[in-house]
Design brief:
Order of helices and strands: EEEHHEEHHHEEEHEHHEEHEHE
Number of helices: 10
Structural class: alpha+beta
Radius of gyration: 22 Å
Shape: elongated
Strand content: 25-35%
CATH architecture of the largest domain: 2-Layer Sandwich
Largest sheet: 6 strands, mixed
Number of domains: 2
CATH class of the largest domain: Alpha Beta
C-alpha cells in the first residue's frame, strides 16, 4: 500500500544494531521503503501524513504507550507528545518546514501509565517529509530538575567541617562532533558520557546533565577533588568514542571545580556555578582534556 501523503517518521531510538535510520534509507527512497524501514525496527517507530494522522505504528511503540496499535492509529502525531510540549513541537516543525532544516526538541512522550518519559527528539528533513529520532534522557532530566530546584546547595547544613565540591563538565569540541557525525550520534555520545560519569562517581554524588553538552557533579565530604576528577576524565577517555575533530582522536572532557565549606557561608547555587564555569573557562583556555580546581573560603 502506497502512502503519498507521508510527512514524517518518528522513532524512540535512532539506531538498530548500530545502523542509523538515515543510513538504512537509500538516497532515492520512496514512501514504501520508508514504511518498510520503520516496520522493521525493533524499537518504537511510526510515521504520519501531512494532516498529522498516524498512518502506521509498530508493536514496540504500542508497548511503550501501553495502548493497542489500532487505538494509536486513530491519533494525531501531536497526541503522542505530552500536552505541555505539544505547542512547542508544532511550532518547531512548522518553522522548519520551509527548508527542511534540522530541529531538536526535548519533550515527554505520552503513555497510559502517565509517567511520560523524557526524550531528545530530532527532526530530520528527508526529501518531502520528516525523519524523527528520539533518545531516552529521562534519568538525566530527572537529575537536572533536581539540581535546578535547589535554591541553596548547603542550606540547613551548619557543620563547617563538611566540604562540598561543584564540578561543571563540558564535552570537548562537541559542536564539531555534531557537525561531523550528526545529531543522532551526538545524542548517543551524550548518553554514553553520562553513564560513564555516573559509574566513576560515588553513590552519594549527584550527577546530572546541566544543559547542551554540559554536566554537573555535586559531591559532599570532598577535601581533595583530584581523585574524582581524574576518575571521570579517565572514564570518558576509556569509552574511546571516535572524534576525528579532536586532537586526540576521541571524545574527552574538561572540568571546572570549586571546593568550599558548608555552614555559615551558605553559598548560593548560582554563585557557585558561576565560579565553576570560570574554572572551566580557564581549562579551555589552557587546551582542554584536563581540570582546574578552585578552593573557596570567604
Amino acid at each position: 500500500m502506497d502512502h503519498p501523503d507521508i510527512i514524517g517518521i518518528a522513532s524512540l531510538k535512532p539506531e538498530t544494531e548500530g545502523i542509523s535510520m538515515e543510513q538504512m534509507l537509500p538516497a532515492d527512497h520512496n514512501d514504501l521503503q520508508i514504511a518498510s524501514v520503520v516496520n522493521a525496527l525493533r524499537t518504537p517507530a511510526c510515521y504520519f501524513n501531512r494532516d498529522g494522522q498516524v498512518v502506521s505504528i509498530n508493536d514496540a511503540w504500542a508497548i511503550y504507550a501501553g495502548l493497542p496499535i489500532d487505538a494509536i492509529g486513530q491519533l494525531q502525531w501531536v497526541e503522542l507528545i505530552h500536552a505541555e510540549h505539544r505547542y512547542d513541537a508544532i511550532l518547531r516543525l512548522r518553522g522548519a518546514c520551509a527548508d527542511l532544516r534540522h530541529e531538536t526538541l526535548e519533550c515527554r512522550l505520552v503513555n497510559c501509565r502517565g509517567d511520560g518519559r523524557w526524550f531528545i527528539v530530532n527532526f530530520h528533513g528527508i526529501g518531502t517529509g520528516w525523519l524523527c529520532t528520539c533518545t531516552d534522557i529521562h534519568c538525566l532530566k530527572s537529575r537536572e530538575r533536581e539540581l535546578k530546584s535547589q535554591e541553596r546547595i548547603c542550606i540547613g547544613n551548619r557543620d563547617r567541617s563538611t566540604r562540598f565540591c561543584v564540578v561543571l563538565i563540558d564535552i570537548d569540541h562537541f559542536k564539531i562532533y555534531n557537525d561531523m557525525y550528526g545529531h543522532s550520534e551526538g545524542d548517543r555520545a551524550l548518553c554514553l558520557v553520562a553513564m560513564a560519569l555516573k559509574k566513576a562517581c560515588r553513590q552519594s554524588d549527584v550527577v546530572a546533565r546541566y544543559g547542551g553538552e554540559e554536566f554537573m557533579i555535586i559531591g559532599r565530604h570532598v577535601t581533595n577533588p583530584s581523585p574524582l576528577l581524574e576518575n571521570v576524565g579517565l572514564a570518558v577517555r576509556q569509552l574511546r568514542i571516535p572524534h576525528s575533530g579532536s586532537p586526540v582522536g576521541y571524545i574527552t572532557i574538561s572540568c571546572g571545580c570549586v571546593v568550599f565549606a558548608a555552614g555559615e557561608n551558605d553559598f548560593s547555587a548560582s554563585w557557585l556555578i558561576k565560579q565553576s564555569d570560570e574554572a572551566l573557562y580557564e581549562v579551555k583556555s589552557e587546551g582542554r582534556d584536563r581540570y582546574v580546581v578552585r578552593n573557596i573560603d570567604r
